[in-house]
Amino acid sequence: MRLLKCAAVFLLFFTLNSELLTLNSYAFAGGKKAIKPSQKDKCPVCGMFVAKYPNWTAWIIFKNGSYVFFDGPKDMLKYYLNVTGYDPSRKSSDILSAYVTEYYSAESMPAEKMFFIKGSDIYGPMGDELIPVGTENRAKEFMKDHNGKKILRFNKITLEDLK
Predict the structure, then answer these.
(1) Per-residue DSSP letters for 45-71?
(2) What backbone phi and psi angles, to 5 degrees, belong to 147?
(3) What sign does the dihedral 85-108-36-130 (CA atoms) show?
(4) What secondary structure letter does DSSP report for 4?
(5) By C-alpha distance, which of 123, 74, 78, 76 is closest to 97?
(6) DSSP-derived pairing of the beta strands 67-70 and 58-62
(7) Which domain holds residue 104?
(8) How many domains does the chain have?
(9) How far is it, in rounded angstroms, from Cα 102 to Cα 114?
(10) I need a surface site. Which of 45, 63, 98, 113 has the fewest CB within 10 A?
(11) Contacts with 152 (C-beta within 8 Å, 6 or more apart), sequence order
(12) What pLDDT was estimated at residue 24?
C-alpha cells in the first residue's frame, strides 16, 4: 500500500511539472506553439471573450501551471499590477511569467522584453491600448507612424500609466 501511495505522489508530481514545462515551452516558443484561449476564456478584468481578438491576446502563467488570458496588454497589466484585487486567492509572487502578442509580428513574446507605446491612433478591443513592439527602433517607428505619446518598459509601467 505504501508503494502505491509513493507511486501516486510521484505520478502527480511528474504530471504537474511536465504540464508547467509544457506551458513554458509553448509560451517561450515566440508564437510558434503559443497557448491559445478557448472560446470560453474571458478576460478577468473586463469580462470580454478573449479568443475573438487573437492579435491582442495577452496572458499570465502562474507558478502552479495555471494561466489567465486577457483581451489586450492593458488589461493584462492592470491585473499584473493588482493581482489580489482581481483574484483574492492569488498574489503577485504567484506569477511565473507574462506574455503579449507583438504588434508587428503577431507572435507571442515575453512581456518584459517589449516596448509599450501609450496613446496612439491604433485601438484594441477595449479602445485605447498599450501597443507592444519588440524593439526600441520599432517603438520609435510606431510612435512616428501612429502618433504615439510615450514609450514604456514593462517593469516601469504603473497603474497611473494605464488610465
Answers:
(1) TT--BSTT-TTT-EEEEETTS-EEEES
(2) 55, 40
(3) positive
(4) H
(5) 76
(6) antiparallel
(7) 2-162
(8) 1
(9) 8
(10) 63
(11) 115, 116, 117, 118, 130, 161
(12) 47
Given CA atoms 51, 24, 86, 131 in this order, what sign does their dihedral have? negative
What pTM did the predictor assign? 0.79
Question: Residue 40's Cα: distance from chain center in Å?
Answer: 17
pLDDT for position 13: 46
Tens digit of each residue's pLDDT (9 = 90 or more) over 80-99: 999 999 999 999 999 999 99
For cell 479568443, what's the residue?
Answer: 51
Q: Are 86 and 112 in contact (CB under 8 A)?
A: no
- DSSP character at residue 152: E
The pLDDT-based confidence of 26 (bands split at 50, 70, 90) is very low
